[in-house]
Design a protein that fits this description.
It contains 13 helices and no strands. The chain has about 290 residues and is mostly helical. Helix 3 (about 70-100) packs across helix 6 (about 150-165). Belongs to the binding-protein-dependent transport system permease family.
């Protein structure tokens, strides 16, 4: 009989849902256009035509761009930065956050204050560039990983999450003979899996979408990330970077469909992974933001 207690929809509710639904539908059109244009057969492509659905379907743009050296190199670069960066982000963030939860740790207040300080003040682009240069990291993948091993916001949220775990669990483990490292690996980490899943996706998306730092730290075109390559294709309207070649008798793949195919390929991995980790978002973050 629970349906008796359900609140009936008001006119305002219908208007709100209708407006939100309309906005959602309108927001899908750019994605539909990009996908449709990327699947358009080169022989039927017409410049400046709006493609809601392709006149003729084809995977020629995807087949072409996946065989180019530039896209392959940028994909490898982005994949390495994403995997290595995310793993190090999780390790550094959770180990440091755990240390900050212990009041007996020497220098805890100093390090916690330093973390909070960075929320309000940032060195800026030029000092960061000089630091990366003096460390000899220019034109290295590590220039996109080491300077961003963690963030103040991530540390504070994870620290709050760990403080919400009942300390009696740690006390019981220590009575059984566990060391601090054993407690961290056997108690804290298993209980932190929702937060780990959420922050894994946060960090992975951050590294996968690396653009500005890659633009200023990486000048070697063979080490470009996907976002820098797509900027070259889309914003600068230059598809020569992917090696548009062929004989006069061939139907060349239009640059516009190459651009759209590259955008879809850049979004695809995150779109595939996101649904599997979405359920951990609210649980992983909210448990770290509310303590009581």
């Amino acid at each position: 009989m629970s349906f008796i207690h359900q609140k009936s929809m008001t006119v305002g509710d219908w208007l709100n849902y209708s407006l939100l639904g309309l906005i959602a539908i309108v927001s899908l059109f750019p994605f539909l256009y990009v996908l449709s244009l990327s699947l358009t057969d080169p022989s039927t492509y017409t410049p400046l035509k709006f493609y809601l659905l392709p006149d003729k379907w084809s995977l020629a743009s995807y087949a072409y761009i996946l065989t180019t050296d530039s896209f392959g190199n940028s994909l490898k670069s982005t994949a390495f930065i994403t995997v290595a960066g995310t793993v190090l982000n999780i390790i550094i963030t959770f180990t440091m956050a755990y240390g900050l939860t212990k009041k007996w740790v020497m220098g805890r207040n100093f390090f916690l204050g330093a973390v909070i300080f960075t929320l309000f003040f940032n060195a800026g682009i030029i000092p960061n560039y000089i630091l990366v240069k003096e460390m000899g990291l220019l034109n290295s993948y590590w220039s996109l990983i080491w300077p961003s091993l963690t963030s103040a916001w991530s540390l504070i949220v994870v620290k709050s999450f760990m403080e919400s775990i009942h300390p009696e669990l740690e006390d019981s483990a220590k009575i059984d003979g566990c060391t601090d490292i054993d407690v961290f690996l056997r108690i804290i980490i298993p209980l932190s899996l929702p937060a780990i899943a959420a922050f894994t996706l946060f960090f992975a998306v951050q590294h996968w979408n690396t653009y500005f730092n890659a633009l200023i730290y990486i000048s070697d075109t063979k080490k470009w990330t996907l976002q820098v390559l797509i900027k070259q294709l889309v914003i600068e309207a230059d598809a020569s970077g992917v090696g548009q070649q062929g004989s006069s008798d061939e139907v060349l793949v239009p640059q516009e469909t190459i651009r759209m195919a590259s955008i879809v390929l850049a979004m695809l991995p995150i779109l595939v992974v996101y649904p599997f980790l979405q359920k951990y978002f609210a649980k992983g973050v909210m448990l770290g933001s509310v303590k009581g």
